[in-house]
Design goal:
By secondary structure, the chain is α+β, with helices and mostly antiparallel strands. The chain folds into 2 domains: about 5-125, Aminotransferase class 4, branched-chain amino acid transferase, N-terminal domain (D-amino Acid Aminotransferase, Chain A, domain 1), CATH 3.30.470.10; about 140-290, D-amino Acid Aminotransferase, subunit A, domain 2 (D-amino Acid Aminotransferase, Chain A, domain 2), CATH 3.20.10.10. It has 7 helices and 17 strands. Strands 8, 9, 10, 11, 12, 13, 14, 15 and 16 form a 9-stranded mixed sheet that branches. Strands 3, 4, 5, 6, 7 and 17 form a 6-stranded antiparallel sheet that branches. A two-stranded antiparallel sheet has the order 1-2. The longest helix has 14 residues, at about 55-65. The radius of gyration is 20 Å and the shape is globular. The protein binds 4'-deoxy-4'-aminopyridoxal-5'-phosphate (PMP).
Length: about 300
């Protein structure tokens, strides 16, 4: 691999020099927001393409607003830097991109806004093929950890510190033998997976938790809604989901930037349908894979070519 760079404090630096002080506010209090984007090799035009670049940075700006962070860069500058970094790092296969806006003050005390507080932007890339195994069906458990609430730490913002909730749920699920978990809201409704949104299929209809159920407003979720309605003519309902609906679903799958589309064949030791990867799940996996690799001309606006 060629020498890898990251962007930190206003410039590109070799990755191993992209370090921050132990006194950094974001390290002390988790006061940072981030995004996870993916770029793919586009076989037809033989170049890299970033999937839904603009939407990811729009969400990052919203996360900044919620956490009172002032990004030193605007939306377009962040988009441009991302393309620049992919070029510099000479990426030629699936690559995960992590931008972060963080409280860079060296300061004790959690308050977000005191005079002269400083926020910084950093960016790095890592090669990423499979985050979860999308070739087989996953066995997913309902976590005993509840999803954080909008009035505690909002799941709508991608706050670094909020991923302690994710880490607890995912790790305990993993140690109990599950491939991943879903978390419930304090009301007991299904929120989402550890770092992915969830869809159920019941009677040829897609069901996904509404955005007021303490979920991240996923960009892959949005992509899947569009593909399912426009390409497969399916009805998609966004509403609160009860736990026991998981057990009687015909099919289920996770969606997310890192995860892509991953089939679920068991919840809490109960098989779904015939226990195999569902037909609609497979169709959406296939459509999504084509979309991210630039093979669906009608969705070429989702891809920013590097
Ligand atoms: N929920 C959570 C908690 C996540 O971390 C992610 C990953 N960003 C998702 C859902 C999926 O969102 P997206 O499709 O925008 O990556």
């Amino acid at each position: 691999m060629s020498e890898q760079y990251a962007y930190l404090r206003g410039q590109f630096v070799p990755l191993e020099q992209a370090t921050i002080s132990v006194r950094t506010h974001a390290f002390l209090y988790g006061t940072a927001v981030f995004e996870g984007l993916k770029a793919y090799w586009l076989p037809e035009s033989e170049q890299m393409g970033v999937f839904r670049l603009s939407e990811h940075y729009a969400r990052l700006m919203n996360s900044c607003r919620i956490l009172r962070l002032r990004s030193p860069l605007g939306h377009q500058e962040m988009c441009d830097l991302t393309l620049d970094l992919i070029r510099r790092n000479q990426c030629t296969s699936a690559t995960y991109i992590r931008p972060i806006v963080y409280k860079s003050d060296l300061r004790i005390g959690p308050i977000l806004t005191v005079k002269d507080t400083r926020d910084d932007f950093c960016l790095f890339t890592v090669p990423m093929d499979g985050y979860l195994d999308t070739t087989k069906g996953l066995h997913v458990g309902v976590s005993a950890w509840r999803r954080l609430d909008d009035n505690a730490i909002p799941a709508r913002a991608k706050v670094n510190g909020a991923y302690v909730n994710t880490a607890l749920a995912k790790t305990d699920g993993y140690l109990s033998g599950y491939d991943d978990v879903v978390t419930l809201t304090n009301e007991g409704h299904v929120a989402e997976g550890s770092a992915m949104n969830l869809f159920l299929v019941r009677d040829n209809q897609l069901i996904t938790s509404s955005i007021t159920e303490n979920i991240l407003e996923g960009i892959t979720r949005d992509t899947i809604v569009e593909l399912a309605t426009k390409e497969l003519g399916l009805k998609v309902v966004s509403r609160p989901i009860d736990r026991t609906e998981l057990y009687i679903a015909d099919e289920a799958f996770f969606v997310g930037t890192a995860t892509e589309v991953a089939a679920i064949t068991q919840f809490d030791h109960r098989y779904l349908g015939d226990g195999k990867v569902g037909k609609i799940t497979q169709q959406l996996q296939d459509l999504f894979s084509k979309a991210i690799h630039g093979l669906l001309p009608q969705y070429s606006h989702w891809i920013t070519r590097v």
